[in-house]
Amino acid sequence: MYAAAEDDAERARIRTALYAPPRGERGPRRRRAAAAPAGAGASTSVLLAQLAAEDEQVAGMRQGSR
Fold it and tell me: Which of 45, 26, 24 is nearest to 34 (CA)?
């Protein structure tokens, strides 16, 4: 593929097209990340609390197995 390219710019375009994620993977991810809901702070704190609780459980399991 690179042999058919006439200059470095065309090689760069070919490389970009080859290593780009599939179109179905690109579109929805960008839209979801850009649009944050208004109550995101509340749900984030709930998730962080759940994560902390799970972390304590895992730490307890590690200490109990020693």
Answer: 26
> How many beta carbons lie within 10 A of that of residue 39, not counting itself?
8
Residues 32 and 12: their CA atoms lie apart, in Å, by 29
| Residue 11 contacts residue 5 (beta carbons within 8 Å) | yes
C-alpha 13/C-alpha 20 separation (Å) is 11
Residue with tokens 């850009």, as numbered in its chain:
34
Tens-place pLDDT, residues 8-51: 999 998 899 888 877 766 555 555 555 556 666 778 888 999 99
Distance CA 42, CA 20 (A): 35
Tokens of 5: 């390219």
Q: What Cα–Cα distance (Å) separates residue 22 from each residue in 25, 26, 31?
A: 5, 7, 16
